[in-house]
Fold this sequence. Notes:
6 strands
Amino acid sequence: MTKYLISFPGEAMVFPEEDFNTVVHDAHAVIDDAKSAGVYVFSGGIDGNVDPVLVAGDGTITEGTHPGHKVPNGGYTVLELPSREAALEWAAKIAVACRCAQEVRQFQYDPAS
């Protein structure tokens, strides 16, 4: 089984404000389905109210991110799936629920994870 990151930037979610509760419900329903299917690893959204920091090996803390790196935002889901095709199917379900296209990335195999 391979882990896949399914994600989207926050600005990609565009829908009328009155649909917010429906979108939340639909997104939670997909996550519940992933949990029931036994493929769920993790999901969540980046809290845009908390600024990122960069922590160096010596413990120095700097506001922001690596130079030139865009601050990540939006939603992230990690699923453990048998194939890329399965990841694309789950991404389509998340896209419908979140009302926006999803990016699919495959994690490299790491026997320690």
